[in-house]
Amino acid sequence: MATNSTLSESHSGEDAADKVSVLVSYSDIEGNVSVNRNAAFERRVLRRIDLRMLPLLGVLYSLALIDRTNLGVARVAGMAEDLGLTVGTRYSLVSCVYFIPYILLELPSNALLRVFGTRNLLSFCVIAWGAVQLAMAFVPNWKYLALCRVLLGTFEAGFFPAIVFIVSTWYQRHEVQKRLATFYLISILAGGFSAIAAYGFSRLAGRAGLHGWSWIFIIEGALTIVFGCVAWMFLPDFPDNNTFLTSEETKFVLERIEEDRGDSLPDAITLRKVFEHLSDWKIWIYGIMFMCATIPAYAIGFFVTIILSSMGWDLEHSLLLSAPPYVFAALSIFVFAWLSDYFRSRAPFIAIQTVLTLIGFTITGFVHQPGWRYFGLFLGNAGSAGCIPGILAYSSNNIVSHSKRAVTTAVVVSFGGIGGIVATTIFRQEDFPRYIPGISATISCQVLLLALLGVLTVNFWYQNKAIRMTAQPGSSGRIDLLYTL
């Protein structure tokens, strides 16, 4: 097993104590099992983990992303006229209220994940938001639609931070981004073609006396409920509590994590620990960076068909043209994730993708030719979508202990919800069709992301330099507690 010299930080006394307790308890786990550490065994175990986790998590997150952003398609499919969403700020309000419970409930949900069990809690969330999605087909006015959006945000709140938390506990730090990117690009591809599928569903208008947009919610909600039932049977748990690996394979996975960062086993989440973790200023910087990355992603998710229709294309062409930018984004996400893991570096690749986002939105916002504006959507979507798994991997690489991992992923993803609120409020109805104020605000946020990334990188570089000058290599020949840059 190759030794890794860039271990995550754990400078607080609480984290150091957590790490010691993990090491002590780990030595008593299945000590009688002898693990064969050849490369073929490692590949086989990782392949089993990948196949068990990534396709299912990718499909479930795809459904979550589709269910929260399909308002844009439903709007142009007739819902705006039927429910009066073009009046004032109603559409922005209905889009925005989803994120209020989504933000508030993410940290409590992550803290309760082990209490209720991964399979029980997450499968309940999937089935519940599927039921809400289905109910949206029958709302009589925009106020009931807003209520359903609040419930949708409530049940989706714990899902994304939980799966990021779970994935980060299974792999070594420089294997994480490819895995996060894999299930995220599945969702990106599904989201890209969901507009076309939704348009097909809307063609059922008149069947059973229902509007076309109602059929979008009915079919997508029913599909979510079905996969929620599948999730209850197959959702993976944490490595120390899994049921699909043998005892030998489980011990091997735990040893790999222990060698990489020393937190293979969980530490208890207490209120005191939560507040200690929240006092780490870097968590909030990660969160603001994630917010800046999600603003353009949500803006495209909610408004892409509207922006395309404003370029002169009719409904059918707007829906068809919404898919190619997502295909390009999926390819870009995986290439950058592979490079980031291969070079064991995060910040430079986040910076490159942020610049792509900035350039893309500048072209879409301020160039007049429709072809160039469409090309800008390719760059903007690819850059912002790629930054999302990049920032999640960046933050998860630089923390130690399950309790801090749970807090950090919840806080960071919560800021993604704030990004959703910002995106739905800065792209205002009165700014249609160019949305120049919203695009300008999005560009400004990318500049802020680059500045914060620079602050973190400089800080981490100086911290690592100080540690290398003072620390002594351990018995394994490595220097512990270095940040991933």
From TrEMBL:
It is found in: Membrane. It is a multi-pass membrane protein. Gene3D superfamilies: MFS general substrate transporter like domains. Residues 53-466 form the Major facilitator superfamily (MFS) profile domain. Keywords: Membrane, Transmembrane, Transmembrane helix, Transport. One of its GO terms (molecular function) is transmembrane transporter activity. The keyword Transport applies. Its main location: membrane. GO terms for cellular component: membrane. It comes from the Eukaryota. The keyword Transmembrane helix applies. The chain crosses the membrane at residues 53-71, 91-109, 121-139, 151-171, 183-201, 213-235, 283-307, 319-340, 347-368, 374-394, 406-427, 439-462. This is Major facilitator superfamily domain-containing protein. It comes from Rhodocollybia butyracea.
